[in-house]
Amino acid sequence: MSAELDFVARDTRVTRLDTAFRWPGGRHVAVILNLAYEAWSDGKAPGVGPMGNPLPAGAFDTNALSWGHYGVARGIDRLLRNLGRHKARASVMTSGVLAERTPAVLKRMVDEGHEIVAHAWAQDVIPATLTVEQAKADIDKTTQAIESVSGKRPVGWISPRGTPSRDGSRLLIEAGYLWQGDVFDDERPYIQTCENGRIVAIPLTMEINDLPHAMRFGRSPRDFVTMFDDLLANVLASEDQALVIDVTAHCHVFGRPSGAWAYEAIVKTVMERDDVYVATREEIADHVLKTAG
Predict the structure, then answer these.
(1) Helix residue ranges, H only, 151-256
(2) Which GO terms describe its molecular function (predicted)?
(3) Are 80 and 111 a contacting pair, CB within 8 Å?
(4) pLDDT surpassing 90 at residue 47
C-alpha cells in the first residue's frame, strides 16, 4: 500500500489499497446499499425541493419542508420493508435529531440488522461551516443521541452534503469512529492516519444516488436501474481491481412509490448474485483493516 498526504483533511496521511486487494471470496466488486433518513433542525427547511421557482429572499420554504418530511412520514417504512423482502441490510445515514423525534424507527433499524450511520444532528448542520469546537460538539451530541435510543453506538459517519470539517477525520478518531464517508476521490476505501490514530475512509460514490439523479439531472427511476445494470456489467467485465458501488436512496426522494420500486429492483439484483459482495459500510471497514491494515 502506498502513503501520501491528504489534500483535504488537515495533517492527515492516506494509505491506499494495493492492486491485489480483494473482497471476501476473491470478489472484486462490492455493493453498499445506503438509505438517507434525514431531517432538519426546528425552523429550518431543505435547500432542495420539487418546485423550480425560487421564493423571495427570506421567505420560509414550507413546500420544501413538507416535501422533506415525507421520508419520516412514509419513505423510511417503505424502503425498510422493501429491503426486508430480500433479507438485505443497508447502511442508513441518520440525522441525530431523529433519535429524539422517531426513536422507535432507529430501534427497528438495529433490530432488522441495518447499520445506523451518524449523519450530523440535522441536514442544516454542515461541519465545513462550523468551528472545530462546534464540529466536535455536533459529533458528540449526534453519537450520544443515536446510541441512547438504538442501543448501539454508531461506528461510521457521513456529513450532510458529504462536506466535512478539515479536522473531521481527527475529531472522528477522537470520538472512537471506525470509518467515515466524506471522501469522493476514489472508488475504493483507504486508510487515513492522523496524529491520534487512524480511520477507514469509504468513498460515497455518487453515480447511483437518487437525489442528484432525480433532483439535479431530472432522470427517471427506470434510468436509475439501467445505469446501475450497465455499471455493474461493465465493472465486472473490465475492472481488475477491487472497488465499491454505492446504491443510495433518500427516504424523501425514492422512498415514494414512484422511485422505491427502482431501488428495490437493484436490491433484488445484487442479492441474487454470488459474484458481488453486498455489505454494510461497517463490514467494508472491518475487511479493509483485517486484510490490508
Answers:
(1) 168-174, 210, 221-238
(2) hydrolase activity, acting on carbon-nitrogen (but not peptide) bonds
(3) no
(4) no
To the nearest whole number, what is the mean pLDDT of the chain? 96
CA atoms within 13 A on the CB side of 223: 10
Nearest by Cα to 9 from 170, 125, 162:
170
Q: How many domains does the chain have?
A: 1
Helix (H, G, I), strand (E, B) or coil at 60: coil
Instruction: Return the half-sphere exposure (C-beta side, CA atoms, 13 A cut-off) of residue 56.
Output: 1
Cβ–Cβ < 8 Å for 168, 159: yes
CATH code of the domain covering residue 184: 3.20.20.370
Within a domain: residue 95?
Answer: yes
pLDDT band at 288 (very low <50, low <70, confident <90, very high): very high
Does 56 fall in a domain? Answer: no
Query: Is residue 52 included in any domain, yes or no?
Result: no
Asked if the structure places residue 54 within a domain, the reply is no
DSSP letter at 17 equals P
The residue segments making up the domain with residue 37 are: 2-43+61-292
Distance CA 158, CA 184 (A): 12
Could you give the CA distance from residue 34 to residue 280 in angstroms, rounded to a whole number? Answer: 8
Alpha carbon distance, N-terminus to C-terminus of the chain: 9
Phi-psi map region of 218: left, alpha, beta (phi>0 left; psi -120 to 50 alpha): left
